[in-house]
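**Fold in tokens:**
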Amino acid sequence: MRKIAIVGSPNVGKSLLFNRLTGAYVTVSNYPGTTVEVSCGKTRIGDEEFEVVDTPGMYSLLPISEEERVSRDILIDERPCVVIHAIDAKNLERMLPLTLQLIEAALPVILVLNIIDEAEQIGMKIDLRHLEQQIFEKYQVELPAVAPQYQGVEIDRPMEEQRLAESRVRLERLGDVNAGAVSEYEELKSRQEFLSAQMRDLEESLESLRKAIQKINLTTKKRFEETFHLVNERFQHLFPRLFRGGRAELRLTEGEDLMTSGVDLFVQPPGKRLSHVGLLSGGEKAMSAIAFVFSMFLVKPSPFCILDEVDAPLDDANVDRFHQLLTEMLPRSQFILITHNRRTMEQCSRLYGVTMEEPGISKLVSVKLTETLPLAS
């Protein structure tokens, strides 16, 4: 079904024209892929039925807004057989460039002037001579001389379209007659060579980056797998020591994909079933975390380790086990503990505390226990 498109700026009477053509009020729906509303209807002219489309408001074929882009896609991509351009008479000069753009796009255009009577009442007159001059300057065609040739003549559209296509081919065969074409070509060629070189550099850099990422991924997977098995082995050894029995293990959360998988701790304290560490009590969680952290230190120790209130949820028996394991780790790392536990303070070689001898004045106190304890004894 051939299509008739109605175009124009907003509030110019397109809806009324649509209603007159289709005999129905405007019904709208979103244009595919957008939120822009487009009105559609049908009309019959003679024995042929046409689809009538009321496009969103537009001012130019060079789109700025989303509505203009949709209108341009309808005109350029769907190629209606007739474009009705509705113009408010008082804005004729402002909107005429759109008419010229439609003609340049090889679209058959019918120009409809709205509220002509109102324009004449306020003293506005359409300067046809000025319009004819603009068209002549643009297309070198005198309308008074050409218009009588087509008055009352039925146009064979397929034949005219074929003539238009042949004219375009002949025009293309004329070639470039721009006197500055050579210099423009050299400038564009230089620019193209520069951009091509930049593109090659980017492609080479991208390929080098891909190779580096692949190498990093392979190395990361290998090292993670090795470290995971070593830490899991240490964890399975330390956990029974701290709990005086039971068993524990590390498991990957996402199967075989080492790059995206996480690590879960599954532990079984003595007398309990194997479960996730999140189901344990506070003290059991703390002891499990201590076993896991020290397992990593046994594989890859660091110079310093800061432990903040790790012994807070532990009872005296578990604190003593923690101290025993901490003492074994001292040759590997130096430990800084933040604690309020008296037993833990007794195991330290140096204490730092904050006191307030006078109200509002804090004082830092340090004690080196390795020197003080022999004196006290």
Remarks:
- Residues 222-333 form a domain with the Rossmann fold fold (CATH 3.40.50.300).
- The chain has two domains: 3-173, 222-333.
- The chain is about 50% helix and 20% strand.
